[in-house]
Amino acid sequence: MRDVAERAAVSAMTASRALREDPRVLPATRERVLAAVAELGYRPNKVARSLRLGHGTGLVGVVVTNLANPFYSRLALGVDSVVGQQDLKTVIGNTAQDPDRERSLVADLVARRVDGIIAVPAGADQRHLAAAAAEGVPVVLASRPPVGFDADCVLVDDFGGARAGTERLLAMGHRRIGFLGSPPAVYTGTERLRGYRAALRDADVPVDERYVRQGQRETAEAAAAAGELLALPDPPTALFCSNNRNTIGAFRAISAAATDTALAGFDDFELADALGLPLTLVAYDRDELGREAARLLLDRMRHSKGTPAAPRRTVVPTTLVEYGARHVGPGA
Amino acid sequence: MRDVAERAAVSAMTASRALREDPRVLPATRERVLAAVAELGYRPNKVARSLRLGHGTGLVGVVVTNLANPFYSRLALGVDSVVGQQDLKTVIGNTAQDPDRERSLVADLVARRVDGIIAVPAGADQRHLAAAAAEGVPVVLASRPPVGFDADCVLVDDFGGARAGTERLLAMGHRRIGFLGSPPAVYTGTERLRGYRAALRDADVPVDERYVRQGQRETAEAAAAAGELLALPDPPTALFCSNNRNTIGAFRAISAAATDTALAGFDDFELADALGLPLTLVAYDRDELGREAARLLLDRMRHSKGTPAAPRRTVVPTTLVEYGARHVGPGA
DNA sequence: CTGTTAGCGCATTCAG
DNA sequence: CTGAATGCGCTAACAG
């Protein structure tokens, strides 16, 4: 920058001000500086800038468990679309479900002095997030509520959506309805299980615990679990799945077993209409989840000085989507 | 950090060294420092560190056009999995196909002094990347070759894969084969079109230009374009698509038209086996693309001092995958 | 093995 | 309106 200042025949200070559009700089002076910048190809060093400012690296950290899952990539995109408008960049950290990795990722983001963190914590232990928040880094949780500390969060209506999806199966006349879900430690999964149970209870249908399978993360595991349910002596006539991984796995099991088991699940997904099976899905706006999380974060960042406002919690609503057996065209 | 040093009764310098595992520090001293760190909850400020070092923010920038496309999220994941092992973090920038956004994103990454950039440039103008490389930031291109400057890159065998896919349709006896692809400015799309043309030429089948439709980015556009081809007086009996967006769009058009048009395309995708249609896909290891790009980048970062090595180019091979009409189970 | 000096590039403070 | 001094937090380079 000194080179620029010299070339423009001003002090480094004036050059700095000119670049930050400080109104106190004479237009003519600014022009000279800008010209020098262009000629020398100078670029301000944002690292030095943030060090000096003591805050504001212009980065927002997003911590997710699996970016390959469209759910998380859309979340990240939603965040980026909002913070990008404030000239903030998104740093994405993928934990691959590893709590240690999540912990170190968050620690690293704090050490980098990111302006804020949006996280989808994998497990129940959120002390690392609590620590980050305690150090003054705004934290927003997405799709999971904070446990053990205060933070803004944006949730999906897991309970209501799952109940509505299960009610749909009940309305179709099913009484033996299975449940396939994520490991119990996953908040959304257990919340959706609660919704499933509530629907059955309200319909006076007893829950047969043999029909409840938690713990499947990927489609292969889900297909295996679904296959086991279908192989029971009195198999369920319908399945409700807590996420798209389980729904797709269940679809494969049902296809393989050649039964006409009814299927419903949480999360819409591409080509759901093309599977040649009637399918009820609990849908919601995935991008909106990220956008809302980003909005909460920006708000928190703006008011970081002064009395911290009470933590806010928003809930994204769900809708039921029905796909027909042959919605897209003729079968084989 | 001064507080830590004081608490441990050493100088700031020694504290710094202790934290960086400098072997010259007495174990007992290190213990004292570590204890002080724990008690004070101190975290080293990585911003200051990178400023001092003058390089090495520990960040790798990944610039993609659309993170919602599994292709790009997998690429990013592949990159992250490799650079993560070197304690580097991944900054993801989404350009949403906007050249201006891409330009400013790259400029920003350079201003942030990222250690390297992996980019999938959207258009043919790569001057911003050339500028970054010229400023000493290692740049690796993924799935597109550099134009107008030298850089490492990792490509997919676009030409060979498309030719093989088209040959498969020819081998099935088709002679009227349509082509659906991305806008001409997209390198992969035109390369795959070349492969398609080569296959037809080698089989002495003239290319009917009415059958060639470029310009579809999303499935809806692709479905419309495919629908137009199928509505021709002498419609193609088979379609080759240059990417998964076009393949899925074509699938929808074929389903809607209830024809038995054969379908082949570049890019494997989830549920491709469940569409109830025979389908030939040109597959390749998407994660590997990112991993290899990361490897090239790490290599380049390591040898950034000294004579720059000649640019390297690796090509990821493709394989043909066949999905049957009713692979997963019974139809409607 | 440990401490002192100096400076990375920028922006706030206070003088001109 | 512009300039000079000072320090953000950290670490190479040189003492001791």
From TrEMBL, chains A, B:
PROSITE patterns listed in its UniProt record: HTH_LACI_2
Keyword check for Transcription: yes
Protein name according to UniProt: LacI family transcriptional regulator
Pfam families: LacI, Peripla_BP_1
Keywords: DNA-binding, Transcription, Transcription regulation
Top-rank taxon: Bacteria
Transcription keyword on record: yes
Domain HTH lacI-type: from-to ranges: 1-53
Alphabetized GO MF terms: DNA-binding transcription factor activity; transcription cis-regulatory region binding
CDD domains the record matches: HTH_LacI, PBP1_LacI_sugar_binding-like
Gene3D superfamilies: 3.40.50.2300, lambda repressor-like DNA-binding domains (1.10.260.40)
TM spans (from-to): none
SUPFAM superfamilies: lambda repressor-like DNA-binding domains, Periplasmic binding protein-like I
SMART domains recorded: HTH_LACI (SM00354)
Source organism (scientific name): Wenjunlia vitaminophila (Streptomyces vitaminophilus)
